[in-house]
Specification:
Length: 226
């Protein structure tokens, strides 16, 4: 089975000389189709940096990142953007919805950007919003939604193009305990239904324990936990 994402001898530093800070050190990591993986670590340990490197949003100091067997560090920015659009989606701690757009248009946005027919894109967005339990909130703007509802829209938007891998950075970090559990269950359900790999960054062991694998990021290195 091919790796969806593979990191080879990946290192990332801030600064240089006596101010150099090593965030990631010679890190190897593979993600296969349908895998659910948690990356655990304290704030500031480099978890979000690792996600950004895997997505081609940052450039490694050393080593390489392969997406669908393509070394993205050797690509131009527009090529990395195309690879991301085809293979990856993101859910962050903050929803990043457009405030003037309804739930429907926020969800359909990736398809509209990709020049899908408007009616088809909106129909697909409506279907996935129903799947995440927001059929009655389709025409509401973010200011008219609760925190949990906004995050559901963000998840629907992330999954609408059926990515091969979803990268989630503390997706329930701003929610209360019940909403956090509901959001995690929803991500896992969509992950299973769409056969999407999932990489979730968290410091919450309750979340990590629901994944197939969990890795601790300590001193710039990943160690698999049992």
């Amino acid at each position: 089975m091919n790796n969806i994402i593979e990191c080879r001898s990946l290192s990332f530093n801030y600064g240089a000389g006596i101010t150099k800070t090593s965030v990631l050190k010679n890190l190897d990591f593979k993600v296969k189709a349908n895998e659910k993986i948690a990356i655990i670590g304290q704030s500031g340990c480099g978890k979000s940096t690792l996600l950004n490197l895997m997505a081609g949003l940052d450039t490694p100091t050393d080593g390489e990142v392969l997406i669908d067997n393509t070394n993205i560090s050797k690509l131009k920015e527009h090529q990395r953007t195309e690879i991301r659009a085809k293979n990856l989606s993101f859910v962050y701690q903050f929803h990043h919805l457009l405030k003037d757009f309804s739930s429907l248009y926020n969800t359909a946005l990736p398809l509209l950007i990709d020049d899908m027919n408007k009616n088809e894109a909106l129909l697909k967005a409506e279907k996935i919003l129903k799947k995440v339990g927001l059929e009655s909130r389709i025409n509401h703007k973010p200011s008219e939604l609760s925190g949990g509802e906004r995050q559901r829209v963000a998840i629907a938007r992330a999954m609408i193009n059926e990515p091969t891998c979803l990268l989630a950075d503390e997706p329930s970090g701003n929610l209360d305990e019940k909403n956090a559990k509901d959001i995690l269950d929803l991500i896992i359900e969509l992950n299973n239904n769409q056969n999407t790999a999932l990489i979730i960054v968290t410091h919450d062991l309750n979340i990590a324990n629901k994944m197939d694998k969990k890795f601790d990021l300590i001193n710039g290195r990943l160690n698999e936990s049992l």
